[in-house]
Design brief:
The protein has 272 residues and is an alpha/beta fold. It has one domain. It has nine helices and 14 strands.
């Protein structure tokens, strides 16, 4: 396998983008940690999933770069992960990482590379899962200067105004630039209003002046209506800069890379 390089966006200030290039060798430690969690957690077959860790990583880098490029500094993350929804991490039939795995995975990239946004992940109380174990292992769900272990009373479901984030006393005055919905499903044919969702979250999380970022695979179309921000420049940056690989490195990249921007635009919406 030839050597690949990945561009990781560390921060964005105005029009200035600070990024670094990391190689396959630089990612060996990251891959090793994920490999150890898969092997020790027990929910998944290590031998079956191990070959696809790199694919998970480069897609998570793309998504974490997008969040960084939005320029928001204080980001509240509402996860959707349940082990029971993921019989495997890689879909052998469709030859791709399971839908909405990366939607929940990107905060570990943010933590590992110390990207600019401060990320607050609100896992439900008493929630245990492979993804939470990864977030704890990487310090993405932890009490430190940049990553905070928040909790909620339940999993967030769009339209549920009884969802509540529990604040520890030291975080009560925290304000957020953005709230990210990570792969929440909605009933087919149901469309929610972005402002209604923000209102539900406003009373439960203290979000009063923020944007809503909806990430859903395979598509974020026809789920939420509202005024969206023009993110084409961000997606084109990702398309041109995130992954510098020959398609021979990973077979699925041959089709994925040329269509990266259009694919991501289908999966992510930013609502004012």
């Amino acid at each position: 396998m030839s050597s690949g390089n990945y561009i990781v966006v560390k921060s964005k200030t105005g029009n200035e983008i600070n990024s670094i290039i990391v190689s396959d060798k630089d990612l060996e430690q990251l891959e090793g940690i994920i490999r150890e969690v898969i092997a020790s957690y027990g929910a998944y077959d290590y031998l079956q999933e191990e070959p696809f860790i790199k694919s998970m990583i480069w897609q998570a880098i793309c998504l974490s770069n997008i969040i960084t490029l939005t320029g928001y500094q204080e980001v509240l993350v509402i996860p959707s992960w349940r082990d029971s929804n993921f019989s495997t991490l890689y879909n052998q039939h469709e030859k791709k990482v399971r839908d909405n795995l990366v939607s929940n995975l990107w905060p570990i990239i943010n933590a590992y590379f110390d990207q600019t946004p401060n990320v607050y992940i609100a896992f439900p109380v008493d929630h245990e899962s492979f993804m939470k174990e990864l977030c704890i292992t990487f310090g993405a769900w932890a009490d430190n200067e940049y990553h905070f272990g928040m909790e909620s009373n339940k999993r967030f479901v769009m339209g549920d105004d009884t969802f509540e984030v529990y604040y520890r006393e030291e975080y009560e005055d925290e304000t957020y630039d953005a709230v990210v919905l990570c792969g929440q499903d909605v009933p087919e044919g149901t469309v929610f209003d972005a402002q209604d969702i923000k209102n539900d979250l406003k009373y439960s999380t203290g979000l009063y002046d923020t944007v809503l970022i909806d990430i859903h695979q395979p598509s974020a179309d026809n789920r939420i209506m509202g005024t969206t921000r023009d993110t084409r420049e961000i997606f084109e940056y990702i398309n041109n800069n995130t992954v510098l690989l020959d398609s021979s490195d990973l077979p699925e990249l041959g089709d994925a890379l040329p269509n990266m921007a259009s694919t991501l635009q289908q999966q992510i919406r930013v609502y004012d």
